[in-house]
Each structure stands twice: as C-alpha cells, then as structure tokens.
Amino acid sequence: xxxxxxxxxxxxxxxxxxxxxxxxxxxxxxxxxxxxxxxxxxxxxxxxxxxxxxxxxxxxxxxxxxxxxxxxxxxxxxxxxxxxxxxxxxxxxxxxxxxxxxxxxxxxxxxxxxxxxxxxxxxxxxxxxxxxxxxxxxxxxxxxxxxxxxxxxxxxxxxx
Length: 160
Fold this sequence. Notes:
Blueprint: H1 5-11, H2 16-43, H3 50-66, H4 70-92, H5 95-99, H6 111-130, H7 134-150, H8 153-159
C-alpha cells in the first residue's frame, strides 16, 4: 500500500481499530473533495452562479482547516488558481465569449464578477495564512492586486 505522508501521519500512533476506521475515512475524504471540484468546475463559468462557486470554495476551505488537510488545500488552491488563469486567458481572447455557448460568462471587466472574485480571493488568502501556505498566500495576493487594479476605487473600498 502506497500512502502519502499525510496518510501516514494520520495513521501514526493509532490502534488497529482506529487505523481501520481511518482507512475507511480517507477514500470518503477524497470522494468529497473530488465531487466538490466537479461542482466548482461546473459553477466557474456562469457569472450568475459565482456566489455558489464562492460558497462551495469557502466550505472546502473550512473543511481543510477543520481537518488540517494540507493536500486537499493545495489541490483546491491549485484549482482556483487554474480557474482564474482561464478567465485571464478568456479576457485576452474575447472571441471565445462570442463563440461560447455559456449563457452568462464570467468577465473580468464586469464589476459584479469582480466583486465575487475579490471576495473569494480575500477568503482564500485568509485560509492560506491560517494554514501557513505562504506560497499560495503570495499567489493569491497577486491576484487580489490584479483585481483591485481593474476596479474603480469606490467599488474596492466597499468590499474590503
């Protein structure tokens, strides 16, 4: 059985019954985070569903913090960064919006979308600091800086 360092740490100093229980728990955790990632992948493209996207991501951050799941946090953070990079690429190629069949695409120029994106990044940096993921906190701060530079000053003050 190949185990990750987190799984070995989870199983360390446990009795046999506890190890059996934890071995049942690990696949469930993986299933939960995989399903949540699929939900995030589905919600990320629709500007009308960004509040749900933020809610799911926040719940996953809370889950990672509660169970101190470093691996799941890294996977979630990488997913969120990937989604944002896809938005940046879409902004550079505006014809993708015209050719897309998405009814309400997320646009970085839209103040409402910027509000939701900024709220999520604020939450993400808070959890990155709590979980001591310094590189993720730095990457998130760069995204926050980029979003703030795109917004009008009055909108930024009301959301931070």
